[in-house]
Every structure is written in structure tokens, then in C-alpha cells.
Amino acid sequence: MSKLTDQTHASEKVVLSAPMSFSGSAKRLWRIKRKADGRALVTRATLTSVAVVLIAVAWIVVTAWYAVILVLPPAWLFVGYRLVRRSMRRDRAYAARHRELLKIKDVDRVEQAS
Fold first, then answer.
1. Contacts 24+ apart (CB under 8 A), 91-100
2. Which of 1, 9, 14, 68 is placed for a possible disulfide with 93 were both Cys, Cβ 3.0 to 4.6 Å?
């Protein structure tokens, strides 16, 4: 088995949720906290606090956005756009997963040849 299978892959970090949704905005902003892994306690606490505050602000913006969509009839046209964008994000995740599988296959082939 290759060493690549023990790592976290880039395709696992792709967020499929829309940026203007509660879960999508939280997942994207929570990445700030990941930068603190392995650092001092003060740094981790600071970055976690920053991430929580930014998530709260993002949720206020998302709530306002949903209010606009519900009030303005032409805003319903954005639903189709969001579906198209989600399929684009999903395709990007599939492509990343495919590249990772090819890389693992190449590494295994080199290991078997040795």
C-alpha cells in the first residue's frame, strides 16, 4: 500500500455546499481554524475566535440574502444558477479525486517495478 493512502487528500477538502448557504459558508470559513493546527494555544484560540466571528457575520449576510430571494420575484432565477454552480463544484471534486487515484496508481506501479 502506498504512503499516499494514509494522507488527507485534496478532494476530501472540497466543499460542495454553496458559499451563500449556512453550511457552505461555515465550512469555508472554518478552514481558517485548520491553519492553527500544531501551533501554540494562543494562536489556536485566536484563529478559532476569528473563524467563529466570521461565521456569525457570514450567517447574517446569508440570512439577508435569503430574505431578498424570498421578497423579489426575479431573484428566483438564481436557483438555476446555484444548481449549475453546484454541479461545477461537484465536477471539480470528481476531477481532483480522479487525479489522486491516478497518482496512487502511478506510485503503486513504481513500487511494484522496484
1. 92/14, 93/11, 93/14, 93/16, 96/9, 96/10, 96/11, 96/14, 97/9, 97/11, 100/4, 100/9, 100/10, 100/11
2. 14
Which of these, 77, 57, 61, lies nearest to 69 by C-alpha position? 77
Domain extents for the chain? Answer: 17-71, 73-114
pTM above 0.90, yes or no: no
Q: How many CB atoms lie within 10 A of CB 51?
A: 19
Residue 92, CA atoms < 13 Å, CB-side half-sphere: 12
